[in-house]
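HOLO CASE FILE
Compound: cobalt (II) ion
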Amino acid sequence: MLYPADMQSPDTVRLSLCTKFGGCASKVGAPDLARVLAGVRFPTDPKLLVGLATSDDAGVYQLTRDLAIVQTVDFFTPIVDDPFDFGRIAATNALSDVYAMGGTPITALNIAAFPIDTLDPEILRRILEGGVAVAVAAGVVILGGHTVKDEEPKYGMAVTGTIHPGKIVTNAGARPGDHLLLTKPVGAGILTTARRRDGIPESDLAPAIAEMTRLNAAARDAMLAHNAHAATDVTGFGLLGHAAEMARASHVGIEIDSISVPLFPRVLELIDLDFVPSGTEGNLTYHSEFTSYADHVVGALRVALSDAMTSGGLLIAAEPHDIRKMYMELEKTHTCAVIGRVTEDGDGTISVL
Ligand code: CO
Ligand code: CO
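Model generated. Tokens follow.
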């Protein structure tokens, strides 16, 4: 593919148009992934504390009695046009899986793919600078990286963090009676798709970019301070998909109060205008297998709750009074909300009320 002249400058490039699938919508879907992984036998190890079995955010491996490492990798195609913003979003998203486990990220390796023969290398430099800015803010040291030639740009990080083996917050610990806190709005996939297709001006994307570049570090601090039972971050499988992973792993049901879920501005309107990424459509179909919706939950809202997001917030389960304390700590600086509860009935299912 040859890129036109205005795509060659880092100042005018519309990076999101350099790719067929945007961002986390480029992620292979949960059903496909399950079919693939079912055929692979991964060896177990007594030091492997969290592995592939529970669809958790990151793996945890024990080094000593009081020290384990948390490891994760995430990379994807551009979802926004500005190279620096794309780098920041990709890095924030990669770090998020460590925070979701309650860990502290310490080092990262860059992973990049770039059409170095047909796009200005300065664009790649700005992507990497975006990643560096986020790493510095998170106190993470970038040790190195690996870049391959590719038709479409891609960027992300492999991240290593530390955690106490007794303080891991998995998605498997939610208990009946828990409340659920969500620490960022949903619908960023809808907004980035609308922007790619020129349905909204760049300025309408600003709230989503601000949230996608916000580290989940403060949310992690709040959940560790107030006895979180379970947590995950909301990304490519959408709010309902990640909630369902938590419900399945914890052998509980989850009720979502649809009216309480914070949405980015204009999301429902843009869904009605059909700015829905393919990843979100796929999620919606898959989620209908384990989700029941109250009649008043309109179609556009069902789509929003399944939106394939990048760098979303943490979804945290804890006792109601602990959730209230987390909320009080975060609400000054975060768009967060108590969005539902954990139930005894309905192992692995979601009810949207
Ligand atoms: Co995750
Ligand atoms: Co991830």
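CASE NOTES: The chain has two domains: 15-167, 179-352. Residues 72, 74, 97, 235 surround cobalt (II) ion (ligand 2) (CB under 6 Å).
CLOSED: yes
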